Amino acid sequence: MQMSRISRVVTLLASLALVAPAAADEKKAPTSLPTGHLTTPDWLKASTEPLAAGEIDRLVDGALKEVGIKPAPLVNDEQFLRRVYLDLTGRLPVPADVSDFLKDSSTDKRARLVDRLLQSDEYAEHWASYWREVITSRTTDQRTQLFARSFEIWLQGEFKKNRNWGAMVREMLTATGPMRQDEPDKNGQAFFLGSRFGADATTERAAETARIFLGIQMQCAQCHDHPSDVWKREQFHELAAYFARVKERPIRDGMRLVGQQLVSLPIGEHSMPGKDDPKKTTAMTPRFLDGKEVNGLLTDANRRRSLAEVVTSKKDPWFAGAFVNRMWGHLMGQAFYQPVDDLGPQKEAMMPDVVARLAGSFRGTDYDIRQLLHAMLTSQTYQRQVRPGEAPEDHLLFAASNPTRLTSDALWNSLVGTLGALQQQTPFGGMAAAAAGPFGRFRSFEFLFKQEFAYDPSAKAEEVEGSVSQALLMMNNPLVNQRVQARGSNLLARILNSYTSDDEALRMVYLRALARRPTDHEVSRCKQYVRQVGDRAEAYEDILWALINSTEFQTRR
Predict the structure, then answer these.
(1) E strands along 305-373, which residues?
(2) Final residue of a domain: which of 388, 404, 420?
(3) Domain boundary residue among 285, 311, 337?
(4) Could you tell me if 169 and 272 lie in one domain?
(5) Does 360 map to a domain?
(6) Structural domain total, the chain
């Protein structure tokens, strides 16, 4: 696209102000925040009965009333439809979905939509992708990508069956055997442990088990006691001792890496290096964070089985608390504990009674994921409009939804749903080919796109920032711009051929890109732009380009 045309389209983009309107009612800061600390007894005191209809809203609204904050209004049907589709499936609704939902006048249509999406294959695929990102985002070895597909396939099957979260984690912690590139549908549960390589694999497995499954960040305790943290060096290395006898072994076909094997060693203990002299080490006996020791003579399989049982035990509420906090943070844009993987008795929670109750109900349903998501997504709290804070780091107290960037998968799916298929193999030569390593000389545009837009799903929303390279990819990538053009079998060409009326054509372009109809202002401005350009096809290319480069398109609102 020529610079003069880009400048013209950027002006169009600015004039459209493409963001869903924020709630306009009061934003005053509370005189005090509804925060507090939760200990293990505090969590366990919460009811484990299923959440009653409206219970989440009564709890949240009660806390807001105490600090004098009025909740934002509810989103309209179009806004709800886009939000829940992206949250549950990582995809935009197609125009027919929008039309059908708007025509439905039943009072329970939002709840029924939630239930339908929770049963869909797209739900299983989206959340498998999410958890793959959670577990791979902090790996440092590129080889992990070789086996990530196996993990994702396994997760998809688990989510389709609505396997409870406790059972899934127990399988991850007790897995053994091979993962192979040529057998991606086998033993994907071994990925969590198998994605850690080398001399630090044991300590990384311990740190990630605590962080991801218990919401406890104790990796710093590997080297030293922190004065403001309850976790000590001995506790970290006692946790690591559970993994002392499981090792990873590469599977090769000649010189080519084709798999990874988890094997159990008959003997071996984890050693804690001395604080002052790392060469002086102390052999550690497996002991959980609650102080319960495991017989050091147990085999690797029995050690890890005992760890899996205690991690997922309903007597240890941090497991349920970590999952609930993470899900709530993903759906609301902010969590009770921030960041989502940093809970603990010394950490401060927003609305501690609410998160404790949600976690209690999750324990009571034996960690039923769909039941938890249904309760969250059908609450009015989830369905509040966006209301940005005065500063990005301000906590909205769940009085409104906090806008967040789409995950790389969701953004890719939105782009493909708007423009059509985007497939291209990008060749690597010379040094770049060597850098490609086990992936060979070709990577798909999809792979490169998702790499560019990937971010750690455990990060706080305000820490996830865009980059110049991301903007350039969306604005000036030849493949994207090719699909924006109104020619041949491109989606835009089909729309323009089918709808000679600009009002109807604009409605379809907006429904496809933003899952909503254009406002009167947007229709007027776009029709004025079509007249200004004088070439209908070129003008609509510019409009579509503006839409996919808008904040609204690239964020979950």
Answers:
(1) 349-350
(2) 404
(3) 311
(4) yes
(5) yes
(6) 3
Tokens of 538: 């070129």
DSSP letters, 311-343, are HT-TT-THHHHHHHHHHHHHHHSS-SSSSTT--
Across the chain, which has 557 residues, the per-10-residue mean pLDDT values are: 75 73 57 87 96 97 95 97 98 97 97 98 98 91 83 98 98 96 93 91 95 89 63 88 94 89 93 84 90 83 96 95 98 97 91 98 98 98 89 90 96 96 55 37 78 94 93 92 91 96 98 97 96 95 96 94
- Would 25 be classed as within a structural domain? no
Collapsing DSSP to helix, strand or coil, 57 comes out as: helix
Q: Which residues of 282-292 are buried (b: 16+ CB within 10 A; e: fewer)?
A: eebebbbbeee
**In this structure, is residue 527 part of a structural domain?**
yes
Question: Is 223 a member of any domain?
Answer: yes
Distance CA 194, CA 55 (A): 41
Alpha-carbon 337 to chain mean position: 16
292 and 281 co-located in one domain: yes
Structural domain containing residue 219: 123-311
Amino acid at 221: A
**153 and 243 share a domain?**
yes
- Structure token digits, residue 2: 């020529």
C-alpha to C-alpha distance for 200 and 203, rounded to whole angstroms: 6
Same domain, 361 and 373: yes
Give whole-number Cα distances, 237 to 310, 378, 543, in Å.
Answer: 17, 42, 57
Determine the Cα–Cα distance for residues 408 and 456; give it in Å rounded to an integer: 10
**pLDDT tens digits, 207-230:** 999 999 999 988 766 666 665 567
Q: Is the dihedral of CA 292, 295, 300, 306 positive or negative?
A: negative
Within 175-317, residue ranges assigned H as helices are 191-194, 201-208, 214, 233-240, 300-311
